[in-house]
Design a protein that fits this description.
3 domains; 673 residues; 44% helix; 28 helices; 20 strands; Rossmann fold; metal-binding (chains A, B); alpha/beta; 6-stranded parallel β-sheet; homodimer
């Protein structure tokens, strides 16, 4: 590249972009780790975007109608941190930049949501940024339809790298965004032809522009170092009604001796390389110092949106009080006051009528009561609407011609769905839930983990949660997926036993502000086990005594979901033989673990033998409750799965795999013998 | 559709295809569940493929040079079962068809590898069939390069549905296959425009032909009910050097009243619908009966390849004895006799020289010794070659111009890589291993589960296995991924502590015939802890006493991988205070669980307090060893992670998260107090 030509053609632009490049070089050198090349390559695009297009006010980073900027290529985090520092986000001080990648700094190796305003989502796991951005763009459409253009009218901009586009989830995002004509979604592809292993062509020769076009995108190609071309392309992208992809031909690690190489992708820390690159940039300031006129220009950019933001405040204030309150409540993730009474009424009715229902159907019942009340919910399914029971009659399909639609037909795209749900939750104003078969937790996992890490309350509706789904066989029968979600920090895994517990689980899930929930729901019908109405949400305690022992308490059966009824039947068998048996329903291990020890000991006192019952592997957190505070394997056992399932009717499978009341009773007797 | 026109145009073809359709209707009706529409829609394509193109011999279903047929749309399993029955695969009797989806039948809801010959891979989780097929096609290329066209010269055919093409993994497969010009891979897209939720256009309007073309595929579109057009398209697909996609416009549930509807996707069980459909087919035979002349025609198809197969036997016999032995050994998944001595020499050297090495580097050392010996290995990485240390100097890149290459640059495609590795293992003759960062287990999960379910020994090299990776932060730091893999049935999770254990782990992984392995390897350097050479493979026992207590045994520290050295340091601290402390290294919990109880009790005797040490969540199987056979939480504890990690240098993170020798020693003292 002829840097001199670039510098002289657009000197003001050049210096602003050089500020990003030098901060990146300095921070990576100080950390002695990180990724220099991407920010150096994309500095021009980012500068044009922030200077001329991005609607934001650094002093009010949470302004709901700001444009969102998603750095899907999260390893280039210094691009984002530089921009936040330069434009004057108060939290992003030069000290933070100097402490890049150090303990306690908000400038983590990859952008971490919650560390600082301006970081809209956690990125790093590639491809998920673009998929999450789809959810941001959807949320904007929904808010605009609901509150009008004067309140919601912003763009979602994404920088994606070659890695993002190779990850399969990008295809799910691209195809879905194209179908939905998300015209305010604009993706910059950092087309630098370099990955860690070498040139892109080592593993890919896809014509990315043709690929995006095939899914209905508006596509342009520009020189990613030509500010005028970048600006013109963004103008065009904003004008089209299609989602836009701008292929930006860039040079990774621009201006350094590592330019256009895999080495340039990583940490450039060699002092001579850094000095030479700065010299080529015409940069003479010391490390971490931005000449004041350049900093002033950047800060002016950071203030550019202040007036627009103030005008927005006025427009927002012109909404009806009720609309304002609704809007704010949803952004604050507060539930409507009426939720508790609606849930209670539903529980009371279920306890009285004692329906036999699959918990996926119970869930539909609950949603049918909640959705009209909580208009911020947006439901959906990865092409299993009738099986996941996620659609209620009051909500229509979200479509280009119906942006008020609150139900999303995601297609067969569990990962894309989950990432986009995260995006809606992050955008604010929306409470997303979406369904698939629980076994396909495997497909959704990368986004489920990010929800937990980002502390956002996405709800994953996982139906067909055991061998109880029957004939579809072991590929569709989860056995280890409760364990997977339970092992994940900051995740509530609910396995309700009947309609009452399902209602309670939904109440906790929808009241949660910082924890995602997994609802593990059955395909098969279950009897109501909560026959006595309780005002309190017992599921919120994680576990509770469903039926106590009659006579001397010799055994405790601990069960979840569909196996609670089996435990109750086992209790009948044991009591008939004079063995006093308590049944503990444990719909949420995480919440039980959060209770104080006194309560836990009350529910699981020392003394009796304990048998856990769950149609899944014992590794799903059971040993803590079976062996803990009680001890000795000789006094505890487990009835569940020890391997994968099989294809047969559900009742046959329960019998063949030995998950029956008789088997439970036998285990108890063997332990007592 | 004008069925009469179809029937009269190609009556012989029609009847053969109708046999598939009626068997499907009968089996689904008998099971009262299943998926009728796909086999009914794709029967014509499958008939032409099997009749005119597929190279197979039903009497010798494991013939190595057969064409492979992969039903990626696995829910249409009755298509495959019908074909296997009709062409005369001995195991696929009419009784099996009648017992579709019943306990003990080989005709599971989705095709399960291992249930019957002719089922080349387990499918059902959508998109994975096509991604697995990529591995089959690669294995064929590699075998052809190595043994010549006379021994390996076959095609891989795939039927993929709309769901397969919506799943992101399909893009990973398509892009990779295009780059690699896998010309013998031919994909039929069942373009029926129907998914469970409605028409495809509800969630997708992608121009699939343009999408495949963008990645370098040869693309054709045909009427999927016109046998001549299908035949001609397959001819063309075989002639091109590119991978081929044939878009087959079909009618789901053809000829029934549910044709072209979502209802037609599922189980058609209504007797009148079935009767009407059969009448429209001109089919008068009773349920499950195939008129003898039609069955005879199908059986002739099943025998069509017998001569070719016999000729292949002769050609194979003409190979040198050594080549024959090599070929057969690899297909039988036998290791070379020399492997044990090579591993022992490596162990001895490591114990003597006691290098400080990251276990990912230890792994590279081991592979450098193994790869020249086991020429059936094919390594690779999802664009992290230098980080995963998966490439050894003796193996070159697999490329269109170098099919002898045994190293695969997979690109940033963890799921596609893992599925294709499974495909190579299933094809036979290849032992695949591939690397990524352990946190991206999340991306690879769907294929890792299928490896376990299918009982194939794929090796997943997961480096950067804890907070020990440092600055990249929590998105890249696994904490729950050991738990995830350990909760998965039939999976060995190895977390070796040094070069010696790494060598032992590789020996077990490469000797395994039916169990996939996860190697959990560090980024950071570790001291050698196995300083005394042992001939035996101690890792194969799962856990063993690394250092025994001096004096009275009061504490047992159980640790894995990078934390074994910490446990050893804690032991020093404790012994210095006179507290006799045993250190147990536990590189593989699954193998330890397989040992007899006497051995387990010898390693973990009752009495001493126990502290586990692992830089991961306790949910990763620890409670069994901490609480089991010993009891009482008051006598056991764990030093590890309780939430996600953070971005900082590794040594800082270990300190901040309290995973130190001092913390371990303190826990022991608190338990003893």
């Amino acid at each position: 590249m002829d840097l001199t030509a670039l510098r002289t053609a657009h000197p003001d632009h050049w210096n602003k972009a050089a500020a990003i490049r030098t901060l990146t070089l300095d921070a990576v050198a100080a950390a002695n780790s990180g990724h220099s090349g991407m920010p150096m390559g994309m500095a021009d695009v980012a500068t044009v975007l922030f200077e001329k297009h991005l609607k934001f006010d650094a002093a009010a980073p949470n302004w709901p109608d700001r444009d969102r900027f998603i750095l899907s290529a999260g390893h280039g985090s210094m691009l984002l941190y530089s921009l936040l520092y330069l434009t004057g986000y108060p939290e992003m001080t030069i000290e933070q930049i100097k402490n890049f990648r150090q303990w306690g700094a908000i400038t983590a190796g990859h952008p971490e949501y919650g560390h600082a305003p301006g970081i809209e989502t956690t990125t790093g796991p590639l491809g998920q940024g673009i998929a999450t951005a789809v959810g941001f763009a959807m949320a904007e459409e929904i808010q605009r339809a609901r509150y009008g253009r004067k309140v919601a009218d912003h763009h979602t901009y994404v920088i994606a790298g070659d890695g993002c586009l190779m990850e399969g989830v990008s295809q799910e995002a691209i195809a879905f965004a194209g179908r939905q004509q998300l015209g305010k979604l604009i993706v910059f592809w950092d087309n630098n032809n370099i990955t860690i292993d070498g040139t892109v062509e080592l593993s890919d020769r896809t014509d990315q522009m043709a690929r995006f076009r095939a899914s209905g995108w508006h596509v342009q190609a520009v020189d990613g170092h030509d500010p005028e071309a970048i600006d013109a392309a963004i103008e065009k992208a904003k004008a089209t009604r299609k989602p836009s992809m701008i292929a930006c031909k860039t040079h990774i690690a621009l201006g350094s001796s590592a330019q256009d190489t895999s080495k340039g992708h990583g940490a450039l820390t060699d002092p001579k390389l850094i000095a030479d690159a700065k010299a080529a940039y015409g940069w003479t300031a010391p490390a971490f110092e931005i000449p004041s006129e350049i900093k002033a220009e950047w800060e002016a950019i950071g203030k550019r949106g202040a007036v627009e933001r103030a005008n927005w405040d006025i427009r927002f204030a012109s909404l009806s009080e009720r609309k304002q309150a609704d809007f704010t409540r949803a952004y604050d993730r507060e539930v409507p006051k009426k939720l508790t009474s609606v849930i209670r009424a539903l529980k009371k009715d279920a306890s009285e009528t004692a329906p036999k229902l699959a918990t996926r159907a119970s869930s539909e019942k609950v949603l049918a009561a909640i959705n009209p009340l909580m208009t911020e919910t947006v439901g959906g399914s990865a092409d299993l609407t009738g099986s996941n029971n996620t659609k209620t009659p009051d909500i229509d399909a979200f479509m280009p011609e119906n942006r008020k639609g609150r139900y999303v037909y995601w297609g067969i795209r569990e990962h894309g769905m989950s990432a986009a749900m995260n995006g809606m939750a992050l955008h604010g104003g929306i409470r997303p839930y979406g369904g698939t078969f629980m076994a396909f937790t495997d497909y959704a996992r990368p986004a489920m983990r990010l929800a937990a890490l980002m502390r956002i309350p996405t709800v994953f509706v996982m139906t067909h949660d055991s061998i109880g789904l029957g004939e579809d066989g072991p590929t569709h029968q989860p056995v280890e997926h409760l364990a997977i979600s339970r092992a994940t920090p900051n995740t509530y895994v609910f396995r309700p036993a009947d309609t009452v517990e399902t209602a309670e689980a939904w109440e906790v899930a929808l009241s949660s502000k910082e924890t995602p929930s997994v609802l593990s729901l059955t395909r098969q019908g279950l009897p109501t086990v909560r026959l006595e109405h309780k005002m309190n949400n017992l599921t919120a305690q994680g576990a509770y005594v469903l039926a106590d022992a009659e006579g001397k308490r010799e055994a405790i059966l601990i069960a979840t979901g569909s196996e609670v009824a089996i435990a109750m039947a086992a209790r009948e068998l044991l009591q008939a033989e004079g063995i006093g048996t308590r049944v503990v329903s444990m719909p949420c291990m995480e919440l039980f673990a959060e209770q104080d020890e006194a309560y836990r000991r009350k529910v699981l006192p020392a003394g009796p033998v304990r048998v856990g019952v769950e149609a899944a592997v014992r590794a799903g957190g059971w040993d803590r409750w079976l062996l803990g505070e009680r001890g000795r394997e000789a006094k505890a056992d487990f009835v569940g799965m020890t391997g994968f399932g099989a294809s047969a009717p559900a009742n046959v499978l329960y019998e063949k795999f030995g998950i029956t009341a008789e088997a439970v009773a036998e285990k108890v007797k063997a332990l007592l013998a």
